[in-house]
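Residues and backbone
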Amino acid sequence: MGFQELTPKELLGAGHAAPEINDTAWHVRWDAPDAPDASEVLAALPPEVEFHTSGSTGPSRCWQRTREYAWSEAGMLAGFVSAGVHGPPGAVVAFAPPLHVYGALATYLMPARLGVPVWYRKSYVGAMPEVGHGHTVVVATPWIFSLLLRNIDWVRSLGHLTVLYSSAMLPGDAHTLLEQAGSGRVTLVELLGSTETGGIATRRWSGGEPPAWTLFPDVSYGTESPSAGTAQDTESAAELVIRSPRLGHQPGQPRPADWRTGDLVEPVDARTFRLVGRVGRLVKVNGRRINLDETEHVLRTAIDCEDLALVAVGDPMTGEQIDLHVVSTPGTDLSEVPALLGVRPRKVHKVPRINRSKTGKLLHHQKTPVTEPVTQPRRES
């Protein structure tokens, strides 16, 4: 797959939401002598930049933020990927569509802040671009880790690779990439945020156990967030409430003062916290507390299937229960699910697909029809 050559002015003129900017592969040289400066980039953006939620937790909604705050956040991302001994990158290879807030900031604007060339495509198919042998940033979506493993020689040819990632829980391939690339050759820079808030927190690591999350420089805990030392375990973790000047607002509405993120956290200090899970993704079944995101990760590494999802459901007799949705293959074996899950799922739905947003998030309503009778996993004798 080739990359269409665009000038920075052509990219800005089309806009981040244009179909030709999201659906086709392109290459822009922000290091060109005639590339627009910061004032010209800002002037090319609309005064209020609009983004729409994915619809993973309800109807899609429009959220606006000023172009100045979008440009500011792109600068923070540029700083995150430039930190460390390897310094600023010399190139960006991006896979996050600019239509969404993460792609708009990281794919569309961050290379302009860095002043480096960027290659973009959203397809899994095609060769990796020739970017030289220096420090390179990949703007990743969940499936990109698998692509990088398939192109491990390209990864090893680089002076250093920084993978910028903002989505659901890291896939298992991310840990495999760190191992196969070699010691210290890849750095992960994770972002926590949403369409409504923009970036909230980040963490940077290259192996071992991931560190705690650190709030963005302009973000602070809201008045309702827990204080450090008050949440000692997942039983007492509290929802993260934040304050930020970059909070989005709906058209015609004022910007909110605080935002309830839906993330359950245990604060470490005034700037860092441990992420426990999502509100609604921590359930207690038969007295056992289960983090559905972490458990999905365990199941994916152990079960041969195309996709799977755990969905919390209510039960009139026992309260909270779990349903397993699985897109099976001929070799899918679900006999170990109860042992891996720690409880027996209420139901197992074998489905042709699982409805997800473009960034991989599980959509709130799974309307996919069941293609096989709903079955209980067989009991071990």
Observations:
- Residues 86 and 135 are 7 Å apart (CA to CA).
- The first strand starts at residue 4 and ends at 6.
